Fold this sequence. Notes:
Blueprint: E1 8-12, H1 16-27, E2 31-35, E3 49-51, H2 58-67, E4 70-73, H3 80-87, E5 91-93, H4 96-102, H5 105-114, E6 122-125, H6 128-135, E7 155-159, E8 169-172, H7 175-184, E9 190-194, E10 200-208, E11 214-216, E12 220-225, E13 228-234, H8 240-257, E14 261-269, E15 275-281, H9 291-294, H10 299-307, E16 320-327, H11 339-342, E17 347-351, E18 362-370, H12 373-388
Parallel strand pairs: 1-2, 1-4, 2-3, 4-5
Antiparallel strand pairs: 6-9, 7-8, 7-9, 10-11, 10-12, 10-14, 12-13, 13-16, 14-15, 16-18, 17-18
Amino acid sequence: MSIRPGAMLGLLGGGQLGRMFIMAAQRMGYRVTVLDPAEGNPSSSVANRHLRADYLDADALGELASTCAGVTTEFENVPAESLRILAEHCVVSPAANSVAIAQDRILEKNFLAANGLGVVPYAVIQNSHELHKSLNLDEVSPQKRPELFPGLFPGILKVSRFGYDGKGQVRVKNAIELDHALSGMNRTACVLEKLLSLEREVSVIVSRGFDGEVNTFPVSENQHRNGILDVSIVPARVSEAVVQKAREIAVRVAEKLDYRGVLCVEFFVLADGRLLVNEIAPRPHNSGHYTIDACATSQFEQQVRILCGLSLGSTAMHGAAVMVNLLGDLWQRGEPEWEQLRRHPNVELHLYGKLDARPGRKMGHYTVLAETTEAALQLALEIKQSLEC
């Protein structure tokens, strides 16, 4: 049974992804209550109601359960237990079990590997205190120290939980650097991944409904700077074989997870065309923001449709698109010169309503639409350079 317009929907998380979900839901006739502990977040300024409480607060969860027909999430670190509690009373998308896997890098890597989905060579480090003891740094010469994790150096050490936008990641060349990095991460559980030479990075937004209906948005080519997504180019400049393979794998991930909702699967593309799954995000994704302006249905409308039991919308593109993130660095000399964007009729600006423009903080994005990828990218980079001057 579908949830009809006019109903109240619940949202766990108050960031910009939630803001865009709310706007899509309200346009479709729904109301939205946000549960988030922070005051003045991007979502609360547009939501119908804001419950300012912890995600595990019993009273707040009870209020959501009694007033909302369905509840979804806007970031992956919502406690899975909150979703389990809410699912006893209303529709929840995505499910707690799916989120629990995707929000823990160790569980995620093991899940992908166990299901035959290609991943970067990796090792799990659960007890780095034992690792430190085995290195015996103070007593054994470097030549006699045991070889650890052969074939994984140079590598990237990543915290298992709560890492995003390049945070919680350190490049390491050997076991000694690994030990120092683990110390700097308070010896929390981590994953060590082999550092590979990449052709490029791409991602796929996949949508899967409660009835099993599934579709994907066009593949996005993603460029990062300092670990943060900088530019997304759509369609991705890869072969049709890579496009089809990426879409197939993304659907397999959603099906193996029994995922119901909008999911992003990020890939590494190797020089020989092989695809390795980098990570999965159980929510709409930064690399899918282009869908707001470039597709018949945005990733956020798709999220509403799935939660409310509606048929999936078309993912057809109107043309090529390039999305560029706007970070707080641009505000350090005052408000950016938005006229650089507004004078172009095929450029759409999206600001997230954040008051504190810190360096590295995502403050908004703009999307350039054009008939060809080359034309969209050229204009996007021209605007980017003019804003940064």
